[in-house]
Amino acid sequence: MSKTARQQERLHSNQADAELWGGPGRIRTVGIVGAGVMGRGIAFANVRAGLCVSLFDTNQVAARRAVREILDSSAAEPLRGPHFVKASGPPTASAATSLEELARADLVIEAVPEDMAIKRAVLTRLDECLAPRTIVASNASSLPISALARCLEHPGRLCGLHFCHPVEERPLVEVIGAEATVPETVRAARGYAITLGKRPIVVRDSPGFLLNRVLSPYLTESLELLLEGASPEQLERSALEFGMPWGPLRQLDEFGIDVALAVGATLLRAYPDRYLPSEMLIAMYKAGRHGRKSGGGFYATEPNEPTRDEARDDALNGSLDSRVSEIIRQRRRGMRRFTAEEVTRRMFLPMLLEATRALEESVVDQFAVVDSALRDGLGMTRRSRGLFGWANDVGPATLLQWLGPLRELGDRFTPTATLMKAVAGRTLL
Fold first, then answer.
1. Cα separation of 270 and 264, whole Å?
2. Span 29-54, mean pLDDT?
3. Residue 245 burial (CB count, 10 A)
4. Where are the domains of the chain?
5. Can you name the CATH fold of 212-425?
6. How sure is the predictor about 77, in pLDDT bands with cuts at 50, 70 and 90?
7. Domain 3-204 falls in which CATH fold?
8. Which of 170, 257, 265, 315 could pair with 164 as two cysteines, CB 3.0-4.6 Å apart?
9. Catalytic amino acids?
10. Prior bond to 306 cis, omega within 30?
11. Residue 87 predicted with pLDDT over 50
């Protein structure tokens, strides 16, 4: 087949794909694979918006329990979604006993663990049994969507839909198109997120997407500070004063230490010059401290206790779980005393630099999108100036000066072209 013939065949294929997967507001029935924390959260958001949901998990008991909880919780919740018009009857949720039962859904979202092999196996099986018109989405936190799309016969129907934890509180959804994803799939997925009452941003496919790419350096640097002698309460207080909803240790507990490790591994493979393997995270994982969902990470909690206000008080009081304190003691490299300003700079400068790199690579196209993603995806408070608001208040020249003594720590503190341009032009970032 000639190159022109292949191009024409691809064009016709894309046009057919657009007819199959395009159309605003056409998603009314949703299948979800995985009844874990994220799967349950996504299912609840759908039911609350008035959509019909079918939830599948290889653990049928977990799936049925999740459905009961979702229906009980949604009974007291008003339907939401600016574009949803209920056709008839109440929203429903059911537990599917096989992937085949999801075959007629408008959209199927996989929310299985952040492991390439597991996700590819699920997507391959879905591709075999779903109707041709069904859109498929991955709730991957960092894995490239284009790599996942290669296991589908029709990759044009796959996109990323990265919901943020906790789903009921975080309005951000990152919508990611793979290399082969047709624009109509992205438009339908974005419209679906709006139907859920979310605030979607369209992000170019790359490791970590936007949110986790800029979040990971902040979390890793916090753990480096901890091992160098900074106290847990110093880290937590500096983060809260910056405008974060929790400090980095509490953030890791909420995020899941297993998920943080998986995201970190993806980013380390992609950017080995500046992403660090975290000794502390690895030790926590090996000790079975996987975060709030497992009964405790840095802080000892039950999955739903204490309340988040109480959790913040615990963080400020420095009440780490005693087993975690021992892990830190065994691995500490020193007991250097840090000022509050030093802690803030170490935590947020790598985050800022990575955000400018994401902009330089067109992961997103505006500075404002980064700060809105931090607010909507992490819960950064409205009183916060935002990452770039902070940077511009400080000034590019001062940021460059701050980076000077930190350069010896590694490439993660190397000034970017964006920062150098701002310094030279005496402009804002």
1. 10
2. 95
3. 19
4. 3-204, 212-425
5. N-(1-d-carboxylethyl)-l-norvaline Dehydrogenase; domain 2 (1.10.1040)
6. low
7. Rossmann fold (3.40.50)
8. 170
9. 162
10. yes
11. no
